[in-house]
User: Fold this.
Amino acid sequence: MSVVSGNAWPANDLWPREHYLSSGFRLRDWLLTTDHKRIGWLYLASITAFFFLGGVAALLIRLELMTPRGDLVTADTYNQLFSMHGIIMIWFFLIPSIPATLGNFLLPLMVGARDLAFPRINLLSWYIYTIGGIFTLFAVIAGGVDTGWTFYTPYSTMFSNTAVLAAVTGVFVVGFSSILTGINFIVTTHKMRAPGLSWMRLPLFVWANYATSLIMVLATPVLSCTLLLIALERVLGIGIFDPSLGGDPILFQHLFWFYSHPAVYIMILPGMGVVSEIITCFSRNPIFGYKGMAISIMSIAIFGFIVWGHHMFVAGQSLYAGVMFSFFTFLVALPSAIKTFNWTATLYKGRIHFTAPMLYGLSFIGLFTIGGLTGIILASLAIDIHVHDTYFVVAHFHYIMVGGMVTAYLGGLHFWWPKMTGKRYSELWSKVAALALFIGFNLTFFPQFILGYLGMPRRYHEYPADFQILNAMSSLGAGVLAIGYLLPLVYLTWSLFKGQPAGSNPWNAKGLEWLTTSPPLKHNFVQIPRVTEPAYAYDRDDG
Amino acid sequence: MLTTETTDRRLSAQGPVAEQFEAMQQQQASNQFGMWLFLATELLLFGGIFASYVVYLFLYPQGFSEASNLLSLPMGMSNTAVLLTSGLTMVLTEHTINAGRRRSALLFLLATLALGLSFLAIKALEWHHEYQEGLMPVLGLAFEHSGEHAQQVRLFFHFYFSLTGLHVFHMLVGLGLLGTIAVFILQWRDPPRIARQVQITALYWAFVDVLWVVIFTLLYVLRL
Amino acid sequence: MNEFRLYLLSWIVLLALLVVVAAGAELLSGMLAIALVLGGALCMIGVIIVMFMGLKTADALLKVYATGGVLWLGFLVVLTMADYMTR
Assistant:
């Protein structure tokens, strides 16, 4: 990127003398830091721990489902397993994932600022996340919850004897972490962009995190309210969903999904932002249709708020409401489709480099497309009647959340790892991991589409014998998938100690973050850069 | 983005700029924006319960009307008037501290605190009254209202205690903030910073006031 | 009018609106009462937000976000009611 008054570290100086990790080795330099880069690492550590905890639950689920009979765990235990899997993976892994790790690290760098708008609140958000996590761990130890991550009433409020209160408290607390991160990102993006960095010159990763932050701020409080109402009913007996008083359990579902549907956009938009960065860099092309991409990101965030009833087609809401929500759901698919077309168009006539991040990026496009198309299938009222609460739904959302978001998250980690650590990692092993992920993922989840279509219900720990082959395939796939997740732990950690220095811009990428050293300086830039070019200016040089 | 500096003579515009910002105006604008965003989350937090109330108000207009009449309108009005007045004293606190008038600011701040405490006192009286009338179906206490729509009246009171309880919690937080600022004003160590803190707190306080107006309207006077 | 008087006037308007709202609820009934109560309440909220919270003098960004917050609550209420009103 052409920069008038920049601070590009000389390209032949591979290892900076001083950077954000070269001093401050005491524990308190980490636990009391206000440096957004260190806070990104704090989050990375926590969410990785929770990812593997949620993964253990998943492995136990798949182990149980190897055989048709419920022989590994009791039905009650199985209910607790899938509930904890959902709660941990959604609220303690996916929702914070990209924003709290990559977003925290990169947002100030990408807008040319020295830190986020509110550094101490950033640290507070991590502590709140950790406290919420402790509550949830307590719930796990106490035996877990069996309500599903969805906490439907009246079971959760009136009948369940499990650690519902601990679980909803944990999620309530972690919600504030989300809200604070969202506020920080919104204010930073509006108020702290470098001179010359207009909105239409921002990297799409910034747009994506901005839109995600809007959702965090507008949706999460309604979840907090809903969880509070569960707690109030369980503890104080003042319930508003109690049918004997004229309460309506479906009202709970309205409140719950008003948050939880936009939440799924929190769990995909940042991934889309990462993919835009990766695809452009490794095809050496600017993004196709930048404006359309930015508008699509905002449309997804906004329209995502008016579709929630598609989770409730057969719950008892009115048919009219069902038709309306179905219609809006079809509409919200449009911007996602536009993005997919534009990523593909970006590849056209590009010079493709099949690096590990690119493999993740390309995987994303394919897997997200499958997930998205099956979403449209589910949005059709007549079809949903048959596949609601079956494995079809399970496969759909895992294609988006895992095939999409987790893939993008790993791609982003691999893309920016050299920037964050100053180290290169093994090219070979990273590609092996990406391949293991793609193969393992499809093996695990594609059979589930078929199972759902054939009628296998979700949340059941046993099934008709006819379904065993597909279930066994799925469980074996989960094993391969696990390898895809474990490998990066090994070689990325190894790179911290033995990796070659990366230099400030090993991928020859565009973006302000690549102008600083790797690892970046403590205050990011020697001098705040002035921007004069659009984003992704790849076709302007030989690259 | 930075705009041209205007001479802002308010106390809050003085003082060293925080590390991550380039100018005081940027810092102030960011802090204000951050607080407004937080208040938007508060609106939606209460909003979930407001939306639920509206649903049931639509479903059970007579039951809720009957229940609303059981509340003490004079106490509700007093509480509203007290909070509205505290809104005035709070904005005057902000006005005077920005002019550097320490003593006036402290007086208005203490007035706001006193009014806030009065609100809590009236609320406590009200709750006590409801407890005595057997209208507090909390923690398994008996609910003693027998009428045509007894169950719906009870549902109303579930809302009443959830909403007023949540509001009281927010009042307590607000009073905590005010008390802390009172101490800061007494110490007067970093006046520009105190002025900025008053500005942000004033936003919060006024918004808790707005939430009360909504609660008052829904529970005490909106009968379908 | 200086700021002090503006605030005082706002306060008086607020108290007057409170009386109007309460009177409307107690003395009237039906659609008229509802209109008066809701209208009065919305005015009170407007005065507090515009005058006491400074939205009057705030930059466009804050006004957009304040409107957005209310709009979003509107989505929740309206779409949920769409279910209940069509059952």
